[in-house]
Write a structure and sequence with these properties.
Layout (H helix, E strand, L loop, with lengths): L1 H21 L6 H20 L1 H13 L11 H7 L4 H4 L1 H15 L9 H21 L11 H16 L6 H8 L3 H9 L14 H8 L16 H8 L5 E7 L15 E3 L6 E3 L2 H10 L4 E5 L5 E13 H10 L1
Antiparallel strand pairs: 1-5, 2-3, 4-5
């Protein structure tokens, strides 16, 4: 059992690295976010008038990007912060995590057990599905946007993970094949895929997908963070597991502003004096977040995508360098 667990942990790490290096290669959901916001802005202008709508949107967008001046317009902020949308906004964080799930069958947010991980994933998918229900994708011409296809792909994987059937379009998304290719494989004599365009049983769909070199079967149920989390729970010792953000930022004792650690997300941010207490709070969060300075000295919020092992010497060196 231990060897099997080690194998899964190694596989998870490999997939996580693959996800990190390839993130954005298959499309930018940020484009769909910007296009949707422009349509929302038009509706708000009709409802409340252009001046009030603009004022509300400016304030709302400056929330996750607080370093912009009040005179800066929301659309300009989103354009300039395009590469930060995935880390600084709620929709960006959701779609970032679902990219890992849809493409690699993993859950990047750490969880204490499979049940907590399943609850987390189910809640994310419920939110994403609700988004698709609310977005008039046809009227706003969003059907081909990566934002939409990513959510559809994640929901299709969830169906298979729950033993539900999928249709030909969903199988095309999961396989990366053209829809016509799936139709041809369903219609062959003999059929390469058993089923029809409206219903392909989960076992049949998974069996065929696993013959494809690029498909990654889901392993999120087998992920095991217990060793890392147990080490964190023991508090400061010779070795610590620290949260690391996508850009490589590490939460360490030197990440202080005026002697305090700024942790948690927008609207619930807290100031904590003690590093051990701050680290303990971060480990209990579903989405650990903290503020750290950019090379230009601007304090911005980042979110953990993994927990990494550091020795006391490494932690001391990072803290001294900051």
């Amino acid at each position: 059992m231990k060897n099997a667990s080690n194998d899964i942990n190694q596989l998870f790490h490999e997939r996580w690295l693959d996800f990190t290096y390839s993130f954005g290669n298959d499309g930018f959901f940020e484009n769909g976010v910007e296009r949707s916001m422009r349509a929302i802005a038009e509706i708000c202008a009709i409802f409340f008038g252009e001046e009030h709508a603009a004022a509300g949107l400016n304030k709302m967008v400056r929330g996750p990007f607080p370093n912009w001046k009040e005179s800066d317009k929301w659309d300009h902020i989103l354009e300039e912060e395009f590469t930060s949308i995935h880390a600084e906004t709620a929709i960006g964080q959701l779609l970032h995590d679902l990219t890992a799930y849809a493409n690699f069958g993993i859950v990047v947010a750490p969880a204490r057990d499979a049940r907590q991980r399943e609850t987390l994933l189910a809640n994310q998918l419920e939110t994403a599905e609700r988004l698709l229900q609310l977005l008039p994708t046809d009227l706003w011409d969003l059907e081909s946007e990566h934002l939409v296809t990513l959510v559809q792909k994640a929901l299709a994987r969830w169906k298979l993970d729950c033993g539900q059937y999928v249709n030909a379009t969903e199988l095309a998304l999961l396989s990366g094949k053209a829809l016509q290719t799936i139709k041809n494989k369903l219609a062959g004599k003999p059929a390469e895929i058993v089923g029809n365009q409206n219903r392909i049983d989960a076992r049949e769909a998974l069996g065929w997908l696993q013959t494809l070199r690029d498909f990654k079967p889901s392993i999120w149920r087998e992920q095991d963070d217990s060793e890392a989390l147990a080490t964190i729970d023991r508090g400061l010792a010779e070795v610590l597991f620290l949260p690391v953000a996508k850009d490589g930022s590490v939460f360490h004792p030197g990440v202080q502003r005026d002697g305090k650690y700024l942790i948690d997300g927008e609207g619930v941010e807290r100031e904590v004096n003690d590093f051990a207490e701050a680290l303990q709070n971060l480990q209990l969060m579903t989405f650990p977040q903290w503020r750290r300075p950019t090379p230009e000295g601007v304090w911005t919020r980042v979110r953990a995508t993994e927990w990494r092992r550091y020795s006391a010497d490494e932690i001391e060196m990072m803290s001294a360098a900051s």
